[in-house]
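Quick start: what a row looks like.
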Amino acid sequence: MRALFIVNPQATTTTSRARDVIVRAVASDIDLDVAHTEYRDHAKELARQAAEEGYELVVSLGGDGTVNEVVNGLLGAPADLPRPAYAALPGGSANVFIRALGLPADPIEATGAVLEGLRTGAYRTVGLGQIDDPEDGRYFTFCAGFGWDADVVQEVERQRRHGRRASPGLYAGIALRMFLKGNGLRDPSLTVQVPGRDPVTDLYFALVTNTTPWTYAGSVPVQPTPRSRFRLGLDAFAMTRLNTVTTANLLRQMVSQRGVPPEGRGYVSWHDQTAFTVRSRSPRAFQIDGEYLGHRKRVDFRSIPKALRIVG
């Protein structure tokens, strides 16, 4: 098997020594070429080239941003080409997609699980979400957010450019400060619509998910849409209230084992849908898979079943 290993040398939770050990372990089992990312969207370019050059497998080591780039590169290759299988190894601060697949959060252990999967032929196909836009048909692997969480992602990216290290504590601290200050969060400008249903208006914050959890607080999964699964359509969650009592109660439920129930006070949710539209009366921050994509007034989402062949 011929494989391309895409390594993000800026991955926040792996050292250069650990990355070298992982590369050598993978190279001992398969015919491996290694490429290091050098700039934003480089992993996307490398993954697309891998498909065009006939590689059978793409492996990546990095965080959720690297995963998103690789996925978009693989799915952006010409449709008439055989698409390589994909094996993702964790190197970021959250690694939501990889952990949602059931792989270990430790990169060494995850490498062992992937190599075992390659030996035994443990492949599976997962569905993805996609922004249904002729100018920006980006795929996402686990979530997209409008409002509060995207504001947090934007600020984290700003601080990372100034040398801060991304961590669950950084995300949580920024989210809390924004909530306490308001920061434009208390603006019920969002509307969610499912085809064939009446729109739900005056929403403060909206998520569209492709799996559960939405994110992790350290080792604890945060589950606003606990029924969301890779094998199903998209789920969504939106807040109809944004006050201290409601938010604290919802966060308590999100980090519980069962997650947030399908119905309750202060929120609405949708399960296993083929498409959503989220609109805002004014431009709001928008993110997919933890990457800020600017401020937008409308995004259309659709579910893409059986989109990606995964190892492990």
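That is the whole record. Residues 82 and 294 are 33 Å apart (CA to CA). DSSP finds eight helices and 16 strands in the chain.
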